[in-house]
Write a structure and sequence with these properties.
The structure is a homodimer. By secondary structure, chain A is α/β, with parallel strands linked by helices. Chain A has 2 domains: about 5-175, Carbamate kinase (3-Layer(aba) Sandwich); about 255-400, VC0802-like (2-Layer Sandwich), CATH 3.30.2130. Helices cover about 35% and strands about 25% of the residues of chain A. In chain A, the strands form 3 sheets. An 8-stranded mixed β-sheet of chain A has the order 3-6-2-1-9-11-12-10, sandwiched between helices. A 6-stranded antiparallel β-sheet of chain A has the order 14-15-13-16-18-17. In chain A, helix 10 (about 355-365) packs across helix 11. The radius of gyration of chain A is 23 Å and the shape is globular. The relative contact order of chain A is 0.11. At the A-B interface, helix 1, helix 2 and helix 3 of A face helix 1, helix 2 and helix 3 of B.
């Protein structure tokens, strides 16, 4: 008998029909002799609707109250899923984050798990029940309701899988697995059978939308095997685990793209210690998350720094950089809000030094100019103009032979 | 400085505008130097919508899960009200039933309060905050979420007012007080300034829709002064307290009507001990709530029993009575689903023996036949055909001089 944690996202439980479908799948999993713990997100777009309602009611979004509000969505979902399971003849009981034993810090809207006390969940399992746990929520050390943030349901599931020593944590979603490229851009993108935590992390960091990066980090740290799969087709998806010899050792396994980047360049900086620090401290103080940073020292001892920021913070970032020009001893600030990051990912890159060169050659051969480059041991990313995204992804997917 | 508990029903917080209006009223109450504890119901028709959703998802309505589902509505409302108060510059914090200290039995969907531990609410008050408490919910002795049932928010408010020794419990609703008759039926119905707990109890038991009867019983038992008033006009409403000499001593203060009654008559019953018991045990076993019961012993030692049941249980009650005919030694069962109960209520009736007679004469003078009669010390009720309801109420309201 295996213990499996199954997590269902919002679209998977978007309406009454979907909830009954999910209950049917869980019932089949139980009848095959498995113990199941469910983690459920709020139905469909409910979290967005609650946020809109809060905006209608008040100008200020008080963290403690926002968490009380938003966590109501998961509560509804777990009760309905538990009822649908009863209808399938499966004993089930719903548990809020607090009831499931998730103790968090007091950082509302984005709380971190401090402790997980699984005695109620374990007791339900021992009694032959399916515990249905509300995703992305807990109770703080101040006894207030807390929300783990967007994507927090994945974290809830991985944490439960670790604490309960589950065989696998299945993350059900609206895609059927992790693909070698976004199938909307590359029709012959291939669903991967197995990838490593490191590869999935690099992919989520560079544009692969699911699962939530924080949960993958958690799964990697605690070695919790994941299975990313579909709640619509129910086919086998993509397994995620520690890298081992059974995995494909292709240099490159996937091409990702992220079209939410804007690029800013500060030119003619004084080349003295502390200048870059002053620039990025200023951006951090405005809560702006800088992604890629590249610095060149040119002739005459002056430096140019380019960096990327989310498009939504582009104008504000330009403003911060311009204001800092005198302090930085810099000449000018230029920027382009419409950039994209195209990345190739693969564990085999570590032992294949020609991979990056092939990426640059492929983009050049397609007339695509590379504006910035960054690398990790298992990833190479290029910043290109956003209009080239699809052409770049398609060309790289072909050049590295990733087609299905 | 007075401590006031203010309870707002679903229509009072039906949308974002209403929530901001309520927050404005609370802010004014606080600025006048009062301490306020709020109790809030789910927004508008949300509870109904959650019930419908449960019906769409599952055939069986599991009590524990229904309570988890339904209590989500109040959670949303308290968070939004607290945020709206922050916008008004009022410090506030929302509390679920569990956080507010409501410990209940495990009778899901209709839980009873066993204990109320107000330390978190008192601490919030001591810190100068307005606690915003979710109505109609608590945590059971099994640590499960419980729902106190429809109208339970009124009970939450009265219990808090008692435990915190509040000066008054204000029940805000969509009517501006308690009236001498339903103003939709009787245009010159008069809003009463003050009535006694006993009078309000008799009125709610016989068709006055608000406040919930259980909360009035609670308020009477613990002598918690109520103030039934409008969340739309904000005018002074009707005070409810123990009977005292300052109250109006009119024989009759109000006429109520309830058009949800059906009448069933079992004729020719053997007049022997235990027969009536057998009949009503059978109905109780089907969960049917019998209201009025009248028995006559006729010639030949045979009895007729008439009783009223809610219209929704009329057909089932007929069936139960018919099935029991042989056991009861009875001749036949007849019934009329379309009946109404018209009642006059007033503490002064206790010392005015002519009141009931005047009621019967008034109905007779208007050509309205009385099918059953029941009385309490401060109420007389007559069952009449439903089509006569409006005429009966209007005639009685006029005959007892209740007009504004």
């Amino acid at each position: 008998m295996s213990l499996i944690v199954q997590k269902f996202g919002g679209t998977s439980v978007g309406d009454a029909d979907r909830i009954r479908e999910v209950a049917g799948h869980v019932a089949r999993t139980v009848r095959r002799g498995n113990q199941v713990v469910l983690v459920v997100s709020a139905m469909g777009k409910e979290t967005d609707e609650l946020l809109r309602l809060a905006g209608d009611v008040a100008r200020h979004r008080h963290g403690r109250e926002m968490d009380m509000l938003i966590t109501a969505g998961e509560r509804k979902a777990i009760a309905l899923v538990a009822m649908a399971l009863h209808d399938q003849g499966i004993e089930a009981a719903s548990f809020t984050g607090s009831q499931a034993g998730f103790v968090t810090d007091t950082n509302h809207q984005n709380a971190k798990i401090l402790d997980l006390r699984t005695d109620r969940i374990q007791a339900a399992l021992d009694a032959g029940m399916v515990p249905v746990v509300a995703g992305a929520q807990g109770v703080s050390t101040d006894k207030d309701v807390t929300f783990l943030g967007r994507g927090g349901s994945d974290t809830t599931a991985v944490a439960l899988a670790y604490a309960l020593k589950a065989e696998v944590c299945e993350l059900y979603t609206d895609v059927s697995g992790v693909f070698s490229a976004d199938p909307r851009l590359v029709p012959d993108a291939r669903k991967m059978t197995t990838i490593s935590f490191d590869e999935l992390l690099e992919m989520t960091a560079t544009g692969c939308p699911k699962p939530a990066m924080r949960s993958v980090e958690f799964a990697r740290s605690y070695n919790v095997p994941l299975h990313v799969r579909s709640a619509f087709t129910w086919e086998i998806g993509t397994g995620v685990k520690e890298e081992d010899d059974t995995m494909e050792q292709a240099s490159v396994i996937a091409v990702t793209s992220d079209t939410t980047d804007g690029k800013i360049t500060v030119s003619g900086l004084a080349d003295r210690p502390g200048v870059a620090g002053a620039l990025f401290r200023g951006l951090a103080d405005h809560g702006i998350n800088v992604d890629m940073i590249v610095q060149n020292v040119g002739v005459g001892g002056h430096a140019d720094i380019s960096f990327t920021v989310p498009t939504e913070h582009f104008e504000q970032s330009l403003e911060v950089a311009r204001t800092a020009l005198p302090e930085l001893g810099a000449r000018e600030v230029t920027g382009d809000a419409e950039m994209a990051k195209v990345s190739i990912v693969g564990s085999g890159m570590k032992t294949d030094p020609g991979v990056a060169a092939r990426m640059f050659e492929t983009l050049a051969a397609n007339g695509i100019n590379i504006e910035m480059i960054s690398t990790s041991p298992i990833r190479t990313s290029c910043i290109v103009k956003r209009e080239h995204t699809e052409a770049a992804v398609t060309a790289l997917h072909g050049a590295f032979g990733l087609g299905g």
